[in-house]
Hints:
Radius of gyration: 28 Å
Number of domains: 3
Distance between the termini: 53 Å
Number of strands: 23
CATH topology of the largest domain: Metallo-beta-lactamase, Chain A
Number of helices: 15
CATH architecture of the largest domain: 4-Layer Sandwich
Bound molecules: zinc ion
Helix content: 25-40%
Strand content: 15-25%
Shape: globular
Largest sheet: 8 strands, mixed
Strand order of the largest sheet: 6-5-4-3-2-1-22-23
Amino acid sequence: xxxxxxxxxxxxxxxxxxxxxxxxxxxxxxxxxxxxxxxxxxxxxxxxxxxxxxxxxxxxxxxxxxxxxxxxxxxxxxxxxxxxxxxxxxxxxxxxxxxxxxxxxxxxxxxxxxxxxxxxxxxxxxxxxxxxxxxxxxxxxxxxxxxxxxxxxxxxxxxxxxxxxxxxxxxxxxxxxxxxxxxxxxxxxxxxxxxxxxxxxxxxxxxxxxxxxxxxxxxxxxxxxxxxxxxxxxxxxxxxxxxxxxxxxxxxxxxxxxxxxxxxxxxxxxxxxxxxxxxxxxxxxxxxxxxxxxxxxxxxxxxxxxxxxxxxxxxxxxxxxxxxxxxxxxxxxxxxxxxxxxxxxxxxxxxxxxxxxxxxxxxxxxxxxxxxxxxxxxxxxxxxxxxxxxxxxxxxxxxxxxxxxxxxxxxxxxxxxxxxxxxxxxxxxxxxxxxxxxxxxxxxxxxxxxxxxxxxxxxxxxxxxxxxxxxxxxxxxxxxxxxxxxxxxxxxxxxxxxxxxxxxxxxxxxxxxxxxxxxxxxxxxxxxxxxxx
Length: 533
Ligand SMILES: [Zn+2]
């Protein structure tokens, strides 16, 4: 009974942990690495076809994004997840496949122009559909016998629709161990979804640490703040452009705007339109509208009971086709435009920025984290001009940020969730945080009397004996370049050996040639040897 850490070890993305029970292999999450890569992940030490099942905490791509690749490589087991996670993955994995395919196409064109080989996508739509066909829907709170020696239960962790922490009871040779994987722990009081639910007990815990070293800025009155921004922008005759993640954040914004409309918080601009301009956001909104109310918090469930749709109101306009998207620019009314991507790095939002940034009547409102070097961060930092589609665009619009919209618990939130365990777990593994956050949170836990450990990729733990069986050091990615160089050295050496072998073949072909030729070649070979000795 073994645990091996593969991804999101001293990093925030690429969640993946290998579990061995009764000699069979399982994965908890199978995520894609996104953004900056600090440490090298070990490759999956077992063949994809030998993975019996995957247990998935939630739909975000950094937890689910490599499932199609796993399928492509031969995985045919089941993927256990909550119903809402299954639904969200069915759109997000297809969307991810499209991204992989268009990126490969772009790289291929570039490579072929340089005389290189075409680039194969990491996976394609068929692989995504294959992975989607392996999903098995589970309900919150219901124990599931998933395999020999594995019973699991999903508990709402309040991070995204359908998100869960997974409790597991593992039995091998008559001995049972309990382990809990936190998944991404949500922030309290997020709209729509529940707060993270407590878990009573566990021997072992794997906990995320995205904000393990920080506290969120005070949660203000998000709805009030948003209403004020909308009011002053509309009064200027401008529009509010919101770069927003298609799944989760966009629906939270719709929830807030529905409340603003319902309470009549905007004056003088009745019936203002709200455009949701992202095909993925439109599909995701459909899933939010259809899901059963076990996914919603009390407030939302009460609205549903009263017959009020929590994320729908008059004025919403959904844009799916690019033609519909272009039409938005011809609507002269003050409006809200919600579009992806959330950090302005890709997607339709870039068109809206191009059309709206130059005009001082407009506002660009950030409602999520902007990574360093992203276009979103540049705008937040006060760039006076940005380059979009080969054009320099002046930034005259108001640039604003909405506070209190993180989907992750901060340090205090993580500690609060941990404190709900009746007893301290025997051991706490800290993952899913950048090096700084992960190390800081691990130290904080140790200071508070927890036996905490932050493994690097490749680290191994025996759940039966409670012993760390491989305590590996992190391999910074710079070293990967060195390894790549050593790979190149290996190739060049192989070339040399091949050259020597063809020389020997040549020599053997000299049988029967003149003595003069044979002597000449022998002498040349000897002088070559002398030269290189
Ligand atoms: Zn997440």
